[in-house]
Design a protein that fits this description.
Two copies of one chain form a homodimer.
Chain A (H helix, E strand, L loop, with lengths): L5 H11 L8 H8 L3 H13 L3 E4 L3 E4 L1 H25 L3 H11 L5 H11 L25 E2 L8 E7 L4 H10 L6 E8 L4 E7 L7 E6 L1 H5 L1 E7 L2
Antiparallel strand pairs in A: 1-2, 3-8, 4-5, 4-8, 5-6, 6-7
Helix pairs in contact in A: 1-2, 1-4, 2-3, 4-5, 4-6
The structure holds a DNA duplex (30 and 30 nucleotides).
Chain lengths: 228, 228
DNA sequence: CAAAATATTTAAGCGCACTTAAATTTTATT
DNA sequence: AATAAAATTTAAGTGCGCTTAAATATTTTG
């Protein structure tokens, strides 16, 4: 892999940070598919630019400047994803990799225009929050994995937790996308697989039943609406 | 300037080639704003990859493979320009530099989709031809510079010959864009400046008179429609 | 047509983002 | 707490696309 830029390092640090614990070199190396040595090199450069706080052998976290840059990148990425999906009509399984390329080569003006065309969306097609021009993230709604829904309970898809093509393509086949309502019809305790009812959008109406494995269900997050 | 890629070299060679004469190193260096030494370096690499025929001290021309790559790049560039202008609504003076960034980071699928959305346009907003998926260029219509129109003659804008922001912004102010009809009302032989009538598009109707210098008129190409 | 001017290439070197291999620090184990 | 295992950093080196300065080839011109 080539030409992984500083921005990508910042994005990985941003996405893998959880309060209180630093992001380690190995995590970054894995996500970017580069050697640990390359990561150490880059971290030293980013630290010199005051973008991150780097504690050798321990890990890193973002400083103000780095945080701003990372958020701007995430914003660009998620706005492109949303645009590619909703306006251009690319399949969900393509938008992530396409956006990853485009995010590095779009002016702020273009991004702002795309956002305007989209009507200032709060979440991208995976359900991830889109930072505003000023870097503010919309509050996320509470969600639970589909796997934790009880039988006869229903929820609306809020977020998916995996970027692999296979995962996303399968969801598309099942008609599962953001905001789609899903009801659990049956749970088979043998393997914890579920029989679900995917409610169609207004135009087509109706609902379809599908069987999904526990692993899929654990990576689909829904907002619980009501019991029935 | 940094990170000027092979593709950019190929594009410059493509754009500056005229049958029978090779493209010289200096022309390339000027267009890309790099040193002659950098150009020589890169030409050797491109020649090794059989993308170009390089005759030291003389210049270069594209070979089959290089031609295909260059045309694909030009296609990506012009489709983005058209999309940014017509769909996204960016000002004409911005589309060239924006497209220059995007053209290197878009998949063929995306480009094909944009082309489809645009309805398979033949020309970009500057009037330059857009190569088809197979690399075929639409036949260009015959055009003459606005400066060569006679008084009372009228033509439709087919192409503009300058990419500078100032030039394009001024045209926008005058309401001059592709396919717009222009009539020469008066020619002042003192400085060869023209008084022109720019016909508005259907929705607004009417026409506006403007005075433009010879230099502007020489860079606007029109298709002669009729005498009056 | 030789000398001067111009264009082009070669040489040496730089910063970047990587690599592998060796050295060092941290963590886990008993 | 010593030692083995794992994680991380340092060291050395690579290819890329650039730079400036020097050498060489081509073109112009008086």
């Amino acid at each position: 892999m080539f030409n992984i830029s500083k921005e990508d390092y910042l994005r990985v640090i941003y996405k893998n940070y959880t309060a209180g614990s630093l992001v380690t070199a190995t995590v970054i190396a894995d996500k970017l598919n580069v050697s640990n040595a390359a990561v150490t090199d880059m971290l030293k450069k980013l630290a010199k630019e005051k973008l991150i706080k780097y504690i050798p052998y321990k890990g890193v976290e973002l400083l103000q400047k780095g945080m701003e840059l990372a958020i701007s990148l995430v914003r660009r990425h998620r706005i492109w994803e949303t645009y590619l999906y909703k306006i251009i009509g690319l399949p969900l399984s393509m938008v992530d990799s396409e956006a990853e390329n485009l995010e590095h080569s779009s002016s702020d003006e273009l991004i702002n225009r795309l956002e305007e065309i989209l009507g200032y969306p709060e979440f991208d097609p995976h359900g991830d929050p889109i930072p505003s021009k000023k870097g503010i993230l919309p509050k996320k709604k509470k969600s639970i994995p589909l796997s934790e829904l009880e039988v006869d309970e229903q929820g609306a898809v809020l977020r998916v937790n995996d970027d692999s093509d296979e995962f996303l393509e399968h969801l598309t086949k099942l008609g599962i996308e953001l905001n789609r309502k899903i009801k659990v019809v049956e749970r088979r305790s043998f393997d914890n697989s579920l029989l679900i009812e995917v409610h169609a959008d207004a135009p087509l109406r109706g609902k379809k039943e599908h069987s999904i494995s526990e692993k899929y269900a654990k990576n689909i997050f829904v907002e619980v609406k009501s019991k029935k």
